Amino acid sequence: MAAINYALKEISCKIVYYGPGMCGKTTNLQHLHQHTMAAQRGNLVSLATPGERTLFFDFLPLEAAELHGFRTRFQLYTVPGQVMYNSTRKLVLRGVDGVIFVCDSQWRKMRENLESFRNLSENLASYGLSLETTPYLVQYNKRDLPNVAPVPYLQYLINPRQVPSAEACALTGEGVFDCLNTICTRVLANLTHKQKVGVL
Amino acid sequence: MGGASREAMGREFSAIGAFSAAISFVAAVGLCTELAQTKALSVWQPTGLMLGTLELAWFGVAALICLKRASLGGWIVGLGALAAVRMVLSATCAMTLVKLHLDPAFPHAWQQVSACEPRLAAAAFSLMICYPLRALLPAGRAGEARGDAEGGAELAAQGDASLWIVRGDERVQVLLSGAAGGQGPGVKGQGKALAGVVTIASPDRISGSITLPLRAVLPRIPQDDLSPRAAEYAPDHPVSIPLSLILPQLKEAQVFVRLEEMRGLLPSGLLIASAYGGLEGEPLLVSLALEDVVPALPAEVLELPPPSPPAWAELPDPESVVFATV
């Protein structure tokens, strides 16, 4: 749930990068951290194992331009992708405003993508949320690798409803900002709509 | 028979099975010996021929029920095994009587244990003793066909939805609901065969097939199940796989084909005769690689329905947020 501080004229939204293990969620955040202006970003907090597996979550606060006199801040989180850390994933999803579902495009990861996407649905449901009400975007990551599934099959598998999606290569940064810009826009649109209908 | 099926057989004919067979044997010897010494319950005693016929009928029906997937040869072997165990049991009882000095000579003791009550008890116990051994019998085409027919009947009962239950070490349950796709828990272990029970519904409306080169299929089949003739075929030899087998599973990011179904798709003689996958009702599943299957699919298979995005995706943009572009 976005936090609106009228005294400070500040809107704070939570975006979560979700996906199977080793799909590139942390790499997305690292790229964002490296390529945003220092004044716009906070520190990237990352709790990882020596093998660079996310242990708890990664956190990166970003500040966007003022909208209608309100400072907009986006708090970007990643979840640990490993199956055993579901309670952490659930915890990170609390109060989420938007999700970027990062798909690993490699053939051998198709099943994990699917399971992770279903896990996202289940974990959102535990907070009374759903993908019907929470803006999300599907990022097809690792498109630079040779053994990747074609996008039509990924769409068929993960995104048959055809919500916004984008191809990306988090390592080189291709598509990373596009995804962030799109989801932030959708989150703000959703926020505005909620305000209009009086939910917020 | 494949490695996985042998493993499954090993599980079936486990120490517990052997132990229960041994316990049954000891109990049978005790009971039959006791019955042999007991006076006949009724005045009328059936003749040896009548008892023999009764026993044979009992063994025949029991073998037929217990060995649904066995071939005719397997059924005959099963029948013979039951009769042999019954004879061994009676002989042991007679020897026990002699050993305990309850009877002076073996022929007389044999006559005693061949009376109606001990003989029928021995016949009943023979089945208990032999039951764990049934997994060792070979399966035949007839048995497989019967299994398929039964699967089809289950399938019809389920309507459009189909259910895969794969038992074994990798216990998974996958719910598939036709080509439209359903949601269900998943199967790990892509790229290797699993032993399991499968009831597959192939939607009738799906027709056509895809062609894969033999080299995409052969590595997926347990090497033990391949006959020496497999090497004679060219790696590019086409293997046609019906879409009705593939499409219901495509939404689950996996494609499994039962080994017995694969037999019909592969060139004849490529699989060894006994390769059906394992125990009764537990066929082996061959996992086909998505990277081989998906590119071979007709384009229309992956066509999506008209977009139906959630309401939030269609809200007008209030302002666009641009952090940066590289």
The mean pLDDT of chain B is 70
Alpha-carbon Rg of chain A, integer: 16 Å
- Widest sheet: strand ordering of chain B: 2-1-4
Radius of gyration of chain B: 28 Å
The global form of chain B is elongated
Unreliably modeled segments of chain B: 1-8, 139-204
Q: Could you characterize the architecture of this molecule?
A:
The complex is a heterodimer of chains A (200) and B (326). Chain A has 200 residues and is of the alpha/beta class. Chain A has helices spanning 25-35, 86-93, 110-125, 151-158, 176-197, and strands at 3-5, 10-18, 45-48, 54-67, 70-78, 98-104, 136-141, 165-167. Chain A has five helices and eight strands, in the order ββαβββαβαβαβα. In chain A, α2 packs across α3 (110-125). The longest helix of chain A has 22 residues, at 176-197. The radius of gyration of chain A is 16 Å and the shape is globular. The N and C termini of chain A lie close together (9 Å). Chain B has helices spanning 3-12, 15-37, 48-66, 72-99, 106-113, 116-130, 141-158, 214-217, 243-250, 259-265, 290-296; strands spanning 162-166, 172-176, 194-195, 197-199, 209-213, 238-242, 255-258, 284-288. Chain B is elongated. Mean pLDDT of chain B is 70; it is low at 1-8 and 139-204. At the A-B interface, β4, α3, α4 and α5 of A face α11 of B.
Descriptors:
heterodimer; A: 200 residues; alpha/beta; 5 helices; 8 strands; B: 326 residues; mainly alpha; 3-stranded antiparallel beta sheet; 11 helices; disordered N terminus
Question: What is the compact description of this entry?
Answer:
The complex is a heterodimer of chains A (200) and B (326). Helix content of chain A is 32%, strand content 28%. With 200 residues, chain A is an alpha/beta fold.
